[in-house]
Amino acid sequence: MPERNLVSWNTIISGLVDFGDYSEAFRLFLIMWEEFSDCGSRTFATMIRAAAGLELASVGRQLHSGVVKMGVEEDIFVSCALIDMYSKCGSIEDAQWVFYDMPEKTTVGWNSIIAGYALHGYSEEALSMFYEMHDSSVKMDHFTFSMIIRICSRLASIEHAKQAHAGLIRYGFGLNIVANTAFVDFYCKWGRIEDAEHVFDRMPCKNTISWNALISGYGNHGRGAEAVELFEQMLQERMRPNHVTFLAVLSACSYSRLFERGWEIFQSMSRDHKIKPSAMHYAGMIELLGQEGLLDEAFALIRGAPFKPTANMWAALLPASRVNGNLELGKFAAEKLYGMEPEKLSNYVVLLNIYNQSGKLKEAAAVLQTLRRKCLRMLPTCSWIEVNKQSHVFLSGDKCHVQANEIYKKVDSLILEISKHGYVTEEKTLLLDVDEQEQRVLLYHSEKLAIAFGLINTMNGSTLQIVQNHRICNDCHNAIKLIALVTRREIVVRDASRFHHFKDGSCSCGDYW
Q1: Whole-structure pTM over 0.85, yes or no?
Q2: End-to-end C-alpha distance for the chain, whole angstroms
């Protein structure tokens, strides 16, 4: 160009920032600065975005100084860019200072500071800012609600999510595909599958992500037949499935033991849809074969994979080995995991439990010595339950809760009651991620304490929803089935593996997890 003005410079620099070429954008900005030292707020907003992209707070602060010198610090776009930059660069205090200094707080400004809090894990503060935004009468948009539903997911707060959902509809975004998909995903993840169905059915337009969310939800809740039916409906409506779709439907087949249908879908991936199965898809099929007791076929599928077997493929053999009593295969898979991920604590615990179960005490002792040498220690297992919008967290053997005495008496009475129905405490059980110390407080595992608390503090007949950071053990699984029977309650437990719906003495997982 024979002649360049501010518009042409801003256009090329903005394009580079949009493309992610932040370094080149800064190079051109410095050249432009020598020619036009009075560039406006738009240029500064663009370069602050570039500093955020590079995560360079020092550069961002220099630009902030330039903004103040040029007198454009009250520009809405500049302020929002600064909030975003400071948040992404790890300085949430500076982002907060810029936000509170804004003369007029816009929707984008509120969204930026809420996103900043959420980015750094300050979920409760982000939720508090959401309610401040609501009280300020600033109009919310679908991005606001999409962020809040993700925050509610972190906090495991169904009640707050329901309020956000009501706000989404009230503000006129009830048909927004992004926000509604987020709500479908949330309700599925936190055990409210009927609410997820309701949102999904009311969506006038759905994308692949929307279908994937509900298919995955059905699968995680042990409703494999419905997941397969929805997958087939998706194909009939000429929606194009992706690798996530197949992962969701194969997992659903695995959880619900739909072996033949799962194998057909697995084969159709490359044949009909030109999607090459990944290690995760193979892992789903390995687990499905294992559920059918076809351990030789599952092992052959690992060996015959067109790539080197991954950790998740070997991990898929562990539940099959446990349920089918093939401890040798379980030991082999655990040793493979141990070799592939030597710093992953859970692999040591898996191997330790398998050695103990098979009576190989010398090998178990060697694993313990390795754990001590590496100074590795399991984090305490915990479970939590939300009652009246407040989360209550329990550790195994925990006596810190204000209702501890009442909770322990309730557990003891439940154990006595379910013993009449055949419950016997399991002294040895093949746990997937719980260490030996946890076994000493077997009767008072965290999930039993959370359930006892829920029974004490909720109305008769209401469903209890428990979340925990570990896989449920055999003893608790057997106990909760009978607790659901004698209390006539439905108990939903989301463990580190899947959802368990306990009702009338049985579990949706079919005792396979």
Answers
A1: no
A2: 66
Contact 136, 105 (CB under 8 A): yes
Q: Report residue 151 as tokens.
A: 């925050």
Alpha-carbon span 104 to 101, nearest angstrom = 9
The residue type at 67: V
Q: Kindly state the tokens that stand for 268.
A: 């159709």
Q: What are phi and psi of 390, to 5 degrees?
A: -125, 130
Contact 194, 227 (CB under 8 A): no
Indicate the Cα dihedral angle 36, 41, 45, 48, nearest 10°: 60
Mean pLDDT of 309-331: 84
Q: Which two tokens stand for residue 368?
A: 């313990």
C-alpha angle with apex 97: 91 to 102, nearest 5 degrees?
130
Cα dihedral across residues 225, 227, 229, 231: positive or negative: negative
Pairing assessment for the beta strands 464-468 and 491-494 based on DSSP bridges: parallel
Q: How far is CA 401 from CA 25, 325, 389, 394, 404, in A?
A: 56, 39, 17, 8, 5
pLDDT, average across residues 429-448: 61
Q: Taking the CA of residue 19 as centre, how many other CA atoms within 13 Å lie in the half-sphere pointing to its CB? A: 10
How far from the centroid of its chain's Cα atoms is residue 85's Cα?
A: 26
Q: Rounded to whole angstroms, how far apart are CA atoms 402 and 329?
A: 46
Asked if 253 contacts 259 with a C-beta cutoff of 8 angstroms, the reply is yes
How many alpha carbons fall within 13 Å on the CB side of residue 305? 22
The one-character DSSP state at 443 is: G
- The neighbour count for residue 488, using CB atoms within 10 Å, is 10
Tokens of 71: 């007198």
**What confidence tens digit (pLDDT) does each residue in 149-161 have?**
888 887 777 888 8
